[in-house]
Amino acid sequence: MTLRAAGAIIIGKTNVPQTLLAFESANPLWGRTCNPWSTAHTAGGSSGGEGALLAADGAAVGVGSDVGGSIRIPSGYCGIFGLKPGHGRVPFTGSVGVSVWRLISSLFLTDWIAGSFVI
Fold first, then answer.
1. How far apart are CA 57 and CA 62, in angstroms?
2. What is the pLDDT of residues 5-57, one digit of tens each?
3. Distance CA 73, CA 48 (A)
């Protein structure tokens, strides 16, 4: 079931880095996403736009993906709560590049046990 089918109302799209793999949300088209608490600081990446929107009370909840900290880093930088579900808890259905994410998740998120991972 998609978010829209479940009754979610999509209110906008947020900024991401050009390569989607950076610790700051900046790209040549939309510029840099600033931290809502201090414009001299970054909101983090790669879901920094989402983190800034949530921290500024622009939305109640956001959706993102996290392989290398894309939810955890903006959450920490913006002072909000981010949840990275365990592997397989959230389906990839409807994601862009599903086969790529399945490959990445099978390589890096196979199994987390006591702070180490097993491939």
1. 11
2. 888 887 777 888 877 777 888 888 888 999 999 999 999 888 888 888 888 88
3. 8
* Closest by CA position to 62, among listed 73, 70, 51, 78: 51
- Quick one: DSSP state of residue 85? P
Model pTM score: 0.69
CB atoms within 10 A of CB 94: 10
Look at residue 41 in the predicted model and tell me its pLDDT.
Answer: 92
Cα separation, 5 vs 3, whole angstroms: 5
With tokens 């009370």, the residue in question is 57
> What whole-number distance in Å separates Cα of residue 63 and Cα of residue 56?
16
Contact status, residue 92 vs residue 101, Cβ threshold 8 Å: yes
pLDDT over 80 at 3, yes or no = no
3-state secondary structure 13-30: CCCCCCCCCCCCCEECCC
Domains of the chain, by residue range, sit at 1-84, 93-119
